[in-house]
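BUG-427 | component: ligand-complex export | severity: low

The export step for zinc ion jobs runs without errors, but we want the raw record kept on the ticket for reference. Input record follows.
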Amino acid sequence: MTDAAILAEVTARRQDLIGLAQDLIRIPTLNPPGQHYRTICDYLAARLMASGFAVQFVRAVGAPGDCEAYPRWNLIARIDSGRGGDCVHFNSHHDVVEVGHGWTRDPFGGALDGDRIYGRGACDMKGGLAASVIAAEAFLAACPDWRGSIEISATADEESGGYGGVAYLAEQGHFAHVTHVIIPEPLHKDRICLGHRGVWWAEIETHGRIAHGSMPFLGDSAIRHMGAVLAEIEQRLYPLLASKHTAMPVVPEGARQSTLNINSIHGGAAEPEAGSTGLPAPCVADRCRIVIDRRFLIEEDLCQVKQEITDVLERVRQQRPSFSYEIKDLFEVQPVMTDRDAPIVRSTAAAIERVLATAADYVVSPGTYDQKHIDRIGRLKNCIAYGPGLLHLAHQPDEWVGVQDMEDSAKVMALVLQDLLGPPASA
Ligand SMILES: [Zn+2]
């Protein structure tokens, strides 16, 4: 069997690919709160059963956000050749983020205009999901004597951490028999995403003592203490982070170092309610909190990352006798980076060269995605993100995915299936 036969099967499905992506976009799977998850799973189940897949619905009972109004439904579709071999798993999240402002298109219209399909989730990542379905169907049509098995999953809640989706499935052992994973996130059709940086979120609270605002010397301002913390971060920590560079090929390049975002700050009286015209009461703030979002590198150790923040706070304590603080871990994810020699990486790189006549680019994502759960809970290292769409369009108004990009990446995925599950060359 030649590349040409498989590529022709994908090309012949171009209209089907467009229609499938449009149908998926038209199901508004907004997260939060987690709407229409069952609807999109039912839609995909019907589609894939018609192509010979067996389907399983898995509700992540008890996962964050799961409730009767918004059940966390996941779909796993599987087709087995009946002949031994590897299992190739395509995992896409089916949830999308809120619409936001600034749209000139119907965010759930799935309009096709020239080469572009518009809508929330078009690039992140219903275009990629559609491409993986077409790739599998084209491969099965072109290669009846294939080996092993193919799985396509559509999972919940990636945009809110993946606990009702891939993390839940991994905990239930659904990746135990899987050999290769492709996550068709929008990293672009000629790039292989090997993994992502690590994450540590923490809340830091400074303590003070409340007093009348006209006599602040009788109190102790938690906001002034936090100001000292922020000054220390600004003067000492940011230069340190900027000096830490990584060998990870993170894109964009600005993320090829350690970064820290101060996500929020709250201190003193609560924000007045919308529409309130009253004046605030004069008080010295006795609490001030920030949430920090620290992204760390594969060369860094999480204990060391946390120690840097403790060092900042201890230095402030030395300068300010009444200073006291609390620090609370909110969330942590280890960095992951799949080896370039891993079978799924080599196979995808070769397929990109055959389809696009260009060498694959290797990248690492600045933020995390569901690979973290496949790596840590599923204990599977042979995993990449590869799919159509431009990452910078994700979560933006007028999000779109290119039809040609979807078709090309479907061709790449179909050739990966041929490489990993096709009959041996000698047959
Ligand atoms: Zn995504």
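Assignee comment: Attached the raw record above. The chain has two domains: 3-196+335-421, 198-267+282-332.
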